[in-house]
Amino acid sequence: MEGTNPVNKKLAAALSGGAVLVLALSGCSSDDSSDKLNSWAKQVCDAVQPQAKKIEAANTAIQKQTSDNSTPEDVQKTDAKAFQDMSDAYKAIGAAVTKAGAPDVDNGEKKKTDAVKELDDISASYAGLKKQVDGLDTKDQAKFADGLKGIATQLDKLSQSGNDALSKLEEGDVGKAMAKQESCKSASASPSATKS
91: Cβ–Cβ under 8 A, 6 or more apart, which residues? Predict the structure, then answer.
């Protein structure tokens, strides 16, 4: 039953690269951000935390599927659900940023608009990947593996654009204000994000 596994491992690697890009915040901050900005950050962080967990769970599901000797059908089902969950999560994060409005910083409106557009695009891309996975031929092992390979390549790009979208939003005082929020700290408590 081998054949899908190496490819699915590549898929998992691509995914984990962009996993909790949602909040690549370090726990360090200075205290010079305004109350207005702090309450904006709290609103966004509180909304993002459950979505970050959802994205992480979707990642874990795909990772887990790669370690078993999974059938193409199982891989297809797990990956399709994971992509759908990620699509929903990014959409929800975009909605949370929209609802919070522009952060109280220079170019806040532009930062917000850009981030929301990127988040919506990422959401649409994951929805597209779900369609692709759904359309793969699970009866033909080689074709299925090829299809997954193409999806893994797209995922690599996607994880990068997600990072870019949020790093721009989190530049400067916005990032400092977000880093102070408990919900952002716990959402980003992955090993890569705990360094000061």
Answer: 119, 120, 123
The kind and range of the H/E element at 184 are helix 182-187
Between the two ends of the chain, the Cα-to-Cα distance in Å is 45
Alpha helices in 68-140 (DSSP H): 72-100, 108-134
Task: Label residue 142 exposed, middle or buried (CB < 10 Å: 0-12, 13-18, 19+).
Answer: exposed
Q: Which amino acid makes up residue 127?
A: A
Residue 98 near residue 105 (C-beta atoms within 8 A): no
Cα separation, 90 vs 162, whole angstroms? 9
Average pLDDT, the chain: 78
Contact 118, 165 (CB under 8 A): yes
d(CA 160, CA 48): 19
Q: How many Å apart are CA 67 and CA 119, to the nearest integer? A: 30
User: What mean pLDDT do residues 22-40 have?
Assistant: 61
Spatial contact of 97 and 169, defined as CB atoms under 8 Å apart: yes
Label residue 19 by pLDDT band (50, 70, 90). Answer: very low
At which residue do the structure tokens 């992480």 appear?
A: 56
